[in-house]
Structure formats: structure tokens, C-alpha cells
Design goal:
The chain contains seven helices and 19 strands. With 344 residues, the protein is an alpha+beta fold. 48% of the residues are buried. The protein binds zinc ion.
Length: 344
């Protein structure tokens, strides 16, 4: 009995272990495992995660990839981040969610889960008794976001989207510190095109988006976009890896000079162009292209090739993404245009 007590005392004196799902790491260690999302009205799933705990104290940064399963450059990037991070020199903790939306990743779907047809980035903070997307959101809210001080939800163009890298900064005016730190996080990450989104929900119980769930809990957070068309293009993988380490330097979690984007282009006015009908999409612009108001973005035909609509730019700006594959349903995005404004 006495021996047991001594062992317990010794255990208590060790640096405390952080356990999330099946991953457990002490200070100076990294560990990978899974958060189990139990079965409900539909099948169970699991979320692969890595905990990297620095030997020195510091903040907790959450990095989430695969919210949309065909946005793959960030998923490959976080594998590289896992092997590049050194717990011995890290300050604080990095929580890596490698693939948030396993049903969508393995099912190769865009936007929606193949199981419940829901968009994971529209169901936060989730619920325990919901469908699988809602249960994933609940697990990430409670196991990852609640433990984080800062968060990046790392997206790319989805399997159908030809996208030029940009980030979302979402100042809601509720928490000046979270708003201003998030702005600097966007500048630190490195995408020089930054969309300002001030219309996200302000109710923490209906936060809808991953990033917004953190932001409404006082944790500065951004959403980033780099990658396209369901492929892990090397330049886009590396851009995401660089973003992580630029942000870690900004947060003083790894040593090195802080670098912020010097001449960002901010976009206060953006528009997602949605399809007026179901048919076959023929894009006529490239990602990142500048267009004038009224420029032809693409044409929509019926399944036989007869033209249904010419889609034109609603205002002049930059094509942040254009759908690059033919399948098109009524109401779905065809592209996104942003009107840039130079700011310091
Ligand atoms: Zn996405």
C-alpha cells in the first residue's frame, strides 16, 4: 500500500501529461492518436491528432486541416509540420488536427459530408446528439478549441475550386484584443490577400464556423486558404508549412525573426457568384486574374452544350477562386471576386 502511495506521489511530481483522445504527451514530448467520435444516428468516426508539447511553457496554438475533406494541401502540410516541430525547443503546445472531416476526406467529397450532407464549417459548435458532422464539430469545439489560445482553420480551394491563396480576417467588434491579434496573425501567416468578413454570427451557441467558434470564445483565430482542385501541389503544401512557422515565430513559440506581410491587399467587398441553374460550367478566367466589371467569368450550358447563361463579374476585382471543373448545380458557387483596397 505504501509503495503505491509513493509511486503516486512521484507521478504527481512529473510534468503533467496532456491527454486528448488516445494521444498523451508530457512536456517536451509529441504524441499522436485519435479523438473518437461515437456513433449516433449515423456511424462513428475518428479524428487524427498530434499534440506537440514544448519543453518550455507558452501558449497553445490549434492548427486544423481537412475541415473540407478534399482540401488536401493543408493536410499534407501538417504532416510535415508534425515532423519538423521539435518539442525540445518549442514554447507552449501545438495541437494539430490532421483531418477534421474524415468521412469527407475518405469519401472524396467537396463542401458536404457524404454521410449527412452537411458542411462541417456551418454546424459549429456542434452537438453530441446530432449527425456526424455535428458530432465532429462538438468534439473539436470541446477537445481542441476549448484548450487553445490561438487557432488557424487551414483551408484550400476544394476539389472543384481553382484558388489563389488568401486569408480571412473576421473582426466582429466584440473583443478588440482578439480582433487585432487575429489581424496580425493573418499578416504573420503570409497570404498577402486578406478578406475582411464582419458578418459572421455573434452568438457563441450558434457560431457556425470553426474560426468563429474560437473567436467568440476570446481566442484570436483566422481561416486561411492555399491550394486548389483537390491536389497537394508542392508550392501550396510548402506555403502552408511556411505559414505555420511564420505564425509560430510571431507567437514567440519558436525562435526567429517575426515577419509580417508588408503590403497586404485587403478585401472588404467580396462576392461569391452562385449558379442560376444546374448544368455544365465552362470557366473563362484563371485564379488570381484581375477582371473588370462585366468581364466574362464563364458560361453555363445545359447537358447538351446549349448556352444557359453568361456569368459576368458583378464588379471589378480579383478572382480569388473560380470553379475549375464542369459539374454545376443551381445555387452552388462558380467563383469568388474580391475588390482590393491597399492598406497598411
Ligand atoms: Zn474549405
Amino acid at each position: 500500500m505504501l509503495a503505491h502511495i509513493c509511486l503516486l506521489l512521484i507521478a504527481a511530481q512529473q510534468p503533467s501529461s496532456l491527454t486528448i483522445g488516445s494521444a498523451a504527451a508530457r512536456s517536451g514530448q509529441a504524441a499522436s492518436g485519435f479523438i473518437d467520435v461515437p456513433a449516433g444516428t449515423d456511424a462513428a468516426t475518428r479524428i487524427p491528432i498530434t499534440i506537440v508539447r514544448g519543453a518550455q511553457p507558452g501558449p497553445t496554438l490549434a492548427l486544423i486541416a481537412g475541415t473540407h475533406g478534399s482540401e488536401v494541401a493543408p493536410i499534407v502540410a501538417l504532416q510535415r509540420v508534425r515532423s519538423a516541430l521539435d518539442p525540445a525547443t518549442l514554447r507552449g503546445t501545438v495541437l494539430i488536427v490532421h483531418v477534421a472531416n474524415m468521412p469527407s476526406f475518405l469519401g472524396r467529397t467537396v463542401y458536404y459530408s457524404p454521410v449527412d450532407g452537411k458542411n462541417l464549417n456551418r454546424v459549429y459548435p456542434g452537438k453530441t446528439d446530432g449527425t456526424v458532422s455535428e458530432r465532429i464539430a462538438y468534439a473539436i469545439t470541446n477537445q481542441i478549441i476549448d484548450r487553445a489560445d490561438f487557432l488557424v482553420d487551414i483551408h484550400a480551394g476544394d476539389g472543384n475550386e481553382s484558388l489563389r491563396p488568401y486569408s480571412y480576417w473576421s473582426p466582429l467588434g466584440l473583443n478588440p484584443r482578439a480582433d487585432s491579434v487575429a489581424r496580425e496573425m493573418a499578416l504573420a501567416w503570409g497570404n498577402d490577400h486578406i478578406v475582411i468578413d464582419t458578418v459572421r454570427p455573434r452568438d457563441p451557441r450558434a457560431s457556425v464556423y470553426t474560426q468563429n467558434t474560437a473567436q467568440l470564445r476570446g481566442k484570436p483565430a483566422i481561416t486561411t486558404e492555399a491550394g486548389y482542385l483537390g491536389v497537394a501541389a508542392e508550392e501550396m503544401v510548402q506555403r502552408n508549412v511556411d505559414g505555420v512557422f511564420r505564425l509560430l515565430r510571431y507567437l514567440r513559440m519558436v525562435p526567429g525573426e517575426v515577419e509580417l506581410v508588408r503590403q497586404p491587399l485587403f478585401f472588404a467587398r467580396t462576392e461569391v457568384i452562385r449558379s442560376p441553374a444546374t448544368g455544365v460550367w465552362h470557366p473563362r478566367v484563371d485564379r488570381g486574374q484581375s477582371v473588370q466589371k462585366g468581364a466574362l467569368i464563364g458560361t453555363l450550358t445545359d447537358f447538351f452544350g446549349e448556352q444557359l447563361a453568361e456569368i459576368r463579374a458583378p464588379f471589378g476585382g480579383i478572382v480569388l477562386y473560380v470553379v475549375g471543373t464542369p459539374a454545376m448545380s443551381q445555387g452552388e458557387p462558380m467563383g469568388m471576386i474580391g475588390e482590393p483596397r491597399l492598406e497598411r
